[in-house]
TrEMBL record:
Keywords linked to the UniProt accession: ATP-binding, Nucleotide-binding
Regions that span the bilayer: none
Any one annotated GO CC term: plasma membrane
Pfam families found in the cross-reference section: MshEN (PF05157), T2SSE (PF00437)
Domain Bacterial type II secretion system protein E intervals: 179-255
Protein name, UniProt field: Type II secretion system protein GspE N-terminal domain-containing protein
PANTHER family: PROTEIN TRANSPORT PROTEIN HOFB HOMOLOG, TYPE II SECRETION SYSTEM PROTEIN GSPE-RELATED
The UniProt record lists the keyword Magnesium: no
């Protein structure tokens, strides 16, 4: 079985008849044993010249380390938690306007990684190719450590004085602005990621007296999550609605 991170390279080498299936099997077997980078193994075994690999990448608009590091916009890193970037070996590069996020991946057909980022970022994804080694280098350089829930909640408290509970007649553009505030985006992203990792079946975000209650259901039992400030409840709910393509103006009827 070909590892996810090598699928593009394997498919390209076979399609271009650069190596034979037998040679590729030999290289993959060595990688399974040594866990070395597949490109390095191919070059070390003299199955492919380094110049040939470079040419293939260039033809496929491949981002090398230099171009990759030069493209990363630190602001868009907020849209993709470090845990997600490391798990799928991806890194967001830039955002075109409000909708299109350029994402460096090791396999253009990795629909799981692309769909995951589309869901948590709320953006359409333009995937570009980069090597596993170069993406890991970029992740190490640009992510200074994955924010935990406590850190994000501290950020929420800091901006709490600037975000008020929306009233019925509040301008929808203001609601969207608050829902896209970085601390709100981080909180919702981490909440969804935590729920997925713990195999939760559903998430409950409920207003309560003096606070907002957040719970996730695991194996039929509801577990409390450290709650955000109550004044952030509406912004968090609006963020979830935006990710779900729901009407943020509708607050009375279920959607």
């Amino acid at each position: 079985m070909v590892p996810e991170n090598n699928k593009w390279l394997v498919r390209t080498l076979l399609d271009k008849e650069v190596v034979t299936p037998e040679q590729l099997t030999q290289a993959l077997a060595r990688q399974k044993e040594t866990r070395e980078n597949l490109e390095k193994i191919l070059v070390d075994l003299r199955l492919v010249k380094d110049e040939k690999l470079t040419a293939l990448k260039k033809k496929e608009s491949f981002y090398d380390e230099k171009s990759l590091l030069g493209q990363v916009d630190p602001e868009v890193l907020k849209l993709v938690p470090e845990t997600v970037a490391r798990r799928y070996c991806i890194i967001p590069l830039s955002k075109n306007g409000k909708k299109i996020l350029t994402l460096a991946v090791t396999d253009l057909n990795d629909v799981v990684a692309i769909d995951t980022v589309r869901t948590i970022s709320g953006c359409e994804i333009k995937a570009v190719l980069a090597s596993e080694k170069d993406i890991i280098t970029a992740v190490e350089r640009y992510y200074s450590g994955s924010p935990d829930m406590e850190t994000v909640l501290l950020d929420l408290v800091k901006v709490n004085g600037h975000i008020v509970q929306p009233e019925t007649g509040e301008d929808l553009s203001e609601v969207k602005l608050k829902a896209n505030d970085p601390p709100v985006v981080k909180f919702v992203n981490l909440l969804l990621l935590d729920a997925v990792e713990r195999r939760a079946s559903d998430i409950h975000i409920e207003p309560a007296k003096g606070k907002a209650t957040v719970r996730i259901r695991i194996d039929g039992i509801l577990h409390d999550i450290t709650p955000p400030p109550k004044a952030m409840h509406s912004a968090i709910v609006s963020r979830v609605k935006i990710l779900s393509n729901l009407d943020i103006a509708e607050r009375r009827l279920p959607q």
